[in-house]
Amino acid sequence: MKTRILGLVALAAVIAATAVALFVVPPDQNQGDAQRIMYPHVASAWLAYLSFGVTALAGIGWLWKRDLRLDAVAHSAAEIGVMFTAFAIWGGMMWGRPVWGVFWQWEDPRLTTTALLLALYVGYLLLRRLSDDPERRATRAAIVGVIAAVDIPIVHFSVEWWRGLHQTATIGSPDRVLNPAAPMVFVGSLLGMLGAFTLAWLYLMIRRYQLARAEAAREEARRMDRIMTARTVEAAR
Amino acid sequence: MSDAGFVIAAYAVIVGGLGVYTLALWRRLRAVRGPDDEAR
Amino acid sequence: MNALRRDASVALAVARKDAIAELRGRHATVSTLFFAGIVLLLFGFALGPDADRLAAAAPGLLWLAVVFAGILAVSRLHLLETDDGALEHLALYPVSRQAIYAGKAIGGFAVMLLIAVLVLVAVGILFAVDVLGAWPALLATAVLGAAGVAAVGTFYAGITVRLRAREVMLPLLMLPVLAPLLLGAVKATAAALAGDPFGELGAWLQLLVAFDVIMIVAGAATYGYLLEDG
User: Fold this and answer.
1) What is the Cα–Cα distance from A225 to B10, expressed in whole angstroms?
2) ipTM
3) What is the mean pLDDT of residues A100-106?
4) Inter-chain CB proximity A1 and B13 less than 8 Å
5) What is the pLDDT of residues C5-42, one digit of tens each?
6) What global pTM score does this model have?
7) What is the CATH number of the domain that holds A156?
8) Do A165 and C207 touch (CB under 8 A)?
9) Contacts of C198 in chain A (CB under 8 A)
10) What is the domain extent for residue C29?
11) A42 to chain C, minimum CA–CA distance in Å?
12) Domain span at residue A228?
């Protein structure tokens, strides 16, 4: 019941924040209407990073406490994180074309890092699908999740250098909106979008976690079933 | 494509994608739990 | 101090066991080297025959060939263990997991270094790059790059070795993780070959050192869990 209320609030917040970002905020002086893409783009990127942080921490928690509920949290966060990563990349490309003139800017460290992020966590989800035993799956996934999280800062750092050491200028950076000099309307709209998306994230996390637990329970029931059938066959002999 | 076209494409995929994922999640939950559960 | 010495001897024993198995059977090295050679040849076809373009692309081709070959090598090295449940036996010994990881990684490192050096020579010959002129910097890059591939490869091979689709999953999981290593190694090689005109070689080598240290620590910390129930 409480989760349902959270879902309704999140839905209203996302609709409101989208309306504000599309129709209320004036277009940016330099970037024009394309600037409007930044609000959901930055919000998606933030939730992608948050999700993968949760995946790594829950993975460590599983290795430490060996509680399968933590593994369910890690799995849920990874799946939702992959979705938000894809959104962030899509938003970045749709923003890049009108502002930079290209969909893909290799010199932008964020875009390149995000693409690798997607590859890392799609691999994580695929690995989960290929493992049958719940505990083995949890351990393998936890290790991959931790390594991926450790890898992200190195990736970002190296890509930053890759460009930085050559002193090539990037034309306009995506989250210029966060610049303190930006007028309050822009900042307010961005914060509104961040809040709305975070609420939606929380709701989806709860539902995805419930799904993961229900699936685990069904998996377990099936396994018990198989064992019981095997025993009955044994006894009948 | 004009700037507005890119803005629409971005919002359609991101906000629409959120909606599609939520609906898919509900369906998956109902499939696992059975219809009489408080799924939503 | 005593524990450390014991760990070191365990690690060396594991590495030596792998080395002997490798020397007797030559499972990984020869086929992997052959594979790296074919990759280089195909890169030549894909980008040639313009010699200048090939020379400019040489650092990237070199490290792509090394990384691709590395995936094959670590996968072969781990496959040996699972054929007869050797890894399970290894896990039963009352020795520290870090030592076993270190041993496997050292074995992998030796193979990777051999591959990196030989591919470097091959690139020098095929793409007309002056490899000998900058050999100290190139050797340092090769050592650091080989260590990184071995450190990452050892535990990723451990994760995937018992999967049904390991041939696909190992590169799929490993390649994105190795991206910063690839970037650093290619940049360091290019800087070394160009005589380091912008003084950036040191920075890239530092990046490689940081990558290696972080991945070795992460691998040593998690390999034990993998042996228990991975």
Assistant:
1) 47
2) 0.85
3) 81
4) no
5) 878 888 888 878 777 777 777 666 788 888 899 999 89
6) 0.87
7) 1.20.120
8) no
9) 165
10) 2-229
11) 23
12) 2-236
